[in-house]
Amino acid sequence: MVTLKDANYSEIEHQCQLELEKLKLEEESLISELNGMLNQRTYIEDKIKGLSRLMPTLKVMKHEAQELVTTINDISDSSEKISSKIRQLDLARGNVDECLLRVNDLIDLEICSQGVQQAILDLDYEKGAAHVHRFLSMDQSLLKRTANDMNNVTNMLKSVRTLQDAASQLRAIVEHKFNEAITNEDLVSVERFFKIFPLLGMHQEGIRDFCSFLRTKIGLTADKNLKSAISTPLADKRHSIIYADTLILLFEGLARVIDTHQPLIETYYGPGRLLSAVSILQKECDKQVKRIVLEWGKARQIQKKIQQVSETSRMTSSGSFSKIEKTDPKDLDIVIGEITLMHFRCEIYNKFLQRKVLADIEVGISETEQKTKSIKTLEQLILNSDLSQCKHDLLSHYLRLEQYFMEESVAKAVNMDSLEPGQQTSSMVDDTFFIVRKCIRRSISTGSLDGICVIINNACRVLENDYCDILKARLKQGYPSGYLDLTQAYNVLHNSIQQGRLQPGDTEQSRTAFIVALNNADISTEYVTALVDNIMKEIEGACPNMNTKEQGKLESCLSGISAVSAKLSEIIEYGIQQLKSTAIKPRVNPWVDTFMNFSHQLSEDELSAYEAGESFVQTLIMNLETLLSSFKHILSTNNYELFIQVLTLEVTQRFEKVVMKSQFNRLGGLVLDKEVRSLAGYIVSGTYWSARDQFARLTQIATILNFDYIEEINDYYGNADGAINWRLAPSEIKTVLNLRTDFKSEEIKRLRL
Amino acid sequence: MDDYKFLFKVVLVGNAGVGKTCLVRRFTQGLFPPGQGATIGVDFMIKTVDVGNEKVKLQIWDTAGQERFRSITQSYYRSAHALILVYDISCQPTFDCLPDWLREIEEYASSKVLRVLVGNKIDRDDREIPIQVGEEFAERHNMYFLETSAKESDNVERLFMQIAEDLMKQARMTNVPRYDPNSYNVDSSSQESSCCSRLT
Ligand SMILES: Nc1nc2c(ncn2[C@@H]2O[C@H](COP(=O)(O)OP(=O)(O)OP(=O)(O)O)[C@@H](O)[C@H]2O)c(=O)[nH]1
Ligand SMILES: [Mg+2]
């Protein structure tokens, strides 16, 4: 009891002690706070004193601010007044200005009316026209008002009438003199009066008359050029492109006329007037182009050529390369070249016109609506010109002939196909792609994207149909099996192989033909890719500013060529499958099947004897070596790779089959494992691609058959450290284990995989 | 990256002025262009549409009807998946030329191409070709048939959408790789039967 009480007291005491400590701490902090406040007191008192000193100043400030507001209001009022005064002043000054203008006009009117008559009498038309120009520059309505405001009206009206009379007199004179100068071919006077027209407000007439004059001159030159073109002797170096030359002369002449006279027009007539000048010149351009193209068509017998070409293509449209007499594509080569040149020149001239006139419109016409209208007029002028029509016709002719040229030349290349000794591919590949590239290049030189696209489309058709079909047809004739000595066949047959005309029994020739076709298909794939890359670059160089739509058009057409690659791959696949069934299977299967002739249940002695002799796998490898080496140098690299792939697949599958039909003991398994390894090693060493994967199943089968005891499978299976990626299903593993005669089937059955 | 699964080429042909360009512009841009000039060569437009849950990209080639561009336009027939042959219901000569157009199609287009006959400008009240005449012609030549107005936007959407759906159906049916090109005679015959059904 006592101890309990004691304990209670000591506890209470301890608590009191704690409380006391807490209170002490609180006291200390309160004291320090109080001290802090005391310390601030003086500072705060200072502040208060300072503030009370400021009070009177603030009052003064408020008062002053109010005064300022009043002042500002006053100022604003007065400035309002001032500005209205200024407005009045402006008005007054405007009136004064107008008055001055009127006075000036009046004075000038007087001067001009006096001067103009004298100038006309003096034949000083520049001076006279300058007077009229001054008169015309006066605001005519203002003049009328002046007349109403004046007392002495008669004088002024007289001056006006004088000037109006003088103006029409001068106009008549200038027009007359101008025509006279033209008749006399007096170029100096022509230019002189050309400059006077705009002074008299005769801009349109001036441009019309002047450009008609230029037009006549251009026409005369063009006539002369065309005549000399027509009479160019056949022996002349430029005979074959003389009409292109004539067209070029015309365009260069026109461009020169425009280039030299544009500054003149701009200086005396102001910018923005080139369109009307060009419209007049275009008439002559149209007329001459039409004549040149007409004469060209006659001289080159274009209609006849086009007709022949379309007749042949109609007749052959069903069967691609039949034997009808037709125009030799070579005979068209030159005229096709001439057309591209002519078309290109038309294209360039149109672009030149567009650029020139657009620039002039840009500078000369500021009002948007008027500008759009002018641009539209220009577009229509170019679009509807006979030049453009001729250009379209030329392109149409070009396309007809070029398509024929490509088709027929490729047909020829195919028909004249030949094999150089030691080559893996025959001449038709290089020849065909040379022709296709040449035609596409030529289309690029027309400068017309539509033209390029058509020729690309045509190239797709020729390659995909005509060309690929020939390759396919050759492969379809098959690869004859029988005794294999292709190297020999190759040597025998190095000259022209004419496909489809092989004698029956020409086994070696058929084989060579087959292999060459397969190689041709492979190399063509590379050529197609290179072709697309090259022409893409060339087109980008020739048409640098294609818009997205044009680019889309081109890409769509080019993708057609890429599609040819797909077709070629199909053909190669077809050929390889053919080889598989005639050259690989019939040989490989018997070789592998000899496996069954050997016992795989060996004693130690039998093992030594087996290893000392010619083993199964050595023979197999030797045979495969012979087979592969007979194809190695005649197949293209890619095709040879494909060939090994197919061969490997065939060998491994067949091998698996015969293993599954055999029975093994421990040593037999050991031998198999060794044999599979050396076979895999042999094939892998000869290829670039990984053949090991194709051996996976066979290797695993051999591993199983090489086990010391059944449970060894657990080292390779499931979560074991040595676990491998099995290509055999659990049931297959068990089947393989069962091939071992020394493994008990109940134990195998008990395995849990 | 475009996220479309199918790309089809649709080519419009027919006499000058029957409204090919207007049909295409109505479909691709939703407008009826005023003061439409004749097409030069061939024009190219793209529109991606949804068919079911799939994006289908239609590459539309609008060819010029004028004779002088024939050598350009013919070269687009071969790769076309669908050909739209257009005439003007208010202009007999454009209908009379249809056999010529069909001959061209026979000569240049793939035998598998989907062919659609379109009588355009039905908003006009000076019709010269009764609808039955067009219908009958289409039936005789195994073509789809539809009358449209590019101006009033009648049947335009439907025309192109139906083509997209049909081509997609076809593409799905023939997803077996064409190993031997000679084998396509087989599926072209099966496809012809579907051509007899009509859009209207
Ligand atoms: N009333 C009416 N007019 C139309 C219709 N579609 C087109 N047009 C008019 O027909 C004319 C020719 O139309 P385009 O679309 O340029 O004809 P096109 O077939 O493209 O002609 P080309 O390009 O020369 O082959 C234009 O004046 C159009 O306004 C239509 O549905 N109704
Ligand atoms: Mg059009």
Automatic annotation (TrEMBL), chain A:
It is a peripheral membrane protein. Its main location: Golgi. One of its GO terms (biological process) is protein transport. The keyword Disulfide bond does not apply. It is found in: Golgi apparatus membrane. Residues 163-476 form the COG4 transport protein middle alpha-helical bundle domain. InterPro entries: COG4 (IPR048682), COG4_C (IPR048684), COG4_M (IPR013167), COG4_N (IPR048680). GO terms for cellular component: Golgi membrane; Golgi transport complex. Keywords: Golgi apparatus, Membrane, Protein transport, Transport. PANTHER family: CONSERVED OLIGOMERIC GOLGI COMPLEX SUBUNIT 4. Belongs to the COG4 family. This is Conserved oligomeric Golgi complex subunit 4. It comes from Ceutorhynchus assimilis. The lineage of its organism: Eukaryota, Metazoa, Ecdysozoa, Arthropoda, Hexapoda.
TrEMBL record, chain B:
Residues 178-200 are annotated as: Disordered. The keyword Magnesium applies. The lineage of its organism: Eukaryota, Metazoa, Ecdysozoa, Arthropoda, Hexapoda. GO terms for cellular component: autophagosome membrane; cytoplasmic vesicle; Golgi apparatus; lysosome. Belongs to the small GTPase superfamily. Rab family. It is found in: Cytoplasmic vesicle, Autophagosome membrane; Golgi apparatus, cis-Golgi network; Golgi apparatus, trans-Golgi network membrane; Lysosome. GO terms for molecular function: G protein activity; GTP binding; metal ion binding. Gene3D superfamilies: P-loop containing nucleotide triphosphate hydrolases. It catalyses: GTP + H2O = GDP + phosphate + H(+). It is a lipid-anchor. Its EC number is 3.6.5.2. Transmembrane segments: none annotated. Keywords: Cytoplasm, Cytoplasmic vesicle, Golgi apparatus, GTP-binding, Hydrolase, Lipoprotein, Lysosome, Magnesium, Membrane, Metal-binding, Methylation, Nucleotide-binding, Prenylation. It comes from Ceutorhynchus assimilis (cabbage seed weevil). The small GTPases Rab are key regulators of intracellular membrane trafficking, from the formation of transport vesicles to their fusion with membranes. Rabs cycle between an inactive GDP-bound form and an active GTP-bound form that is able to recruit to membranes different sets of downstream effectors directly responsible for vesicle formation, movement, tethering and fusion. RAB30 is required for maintaining the structural integrity of the Golgi apparatus, possibly by mediating interactions with cytoplasmic scaffolding proteins. Residues 188-200 have a biased composition (Low complexity). SUPFAM superfamilies: P-loop containing nucleoside triphosphate hydrolases (SSF52540). This is Ras-related protein Rab-30. Its cofactor is Mg(2+).
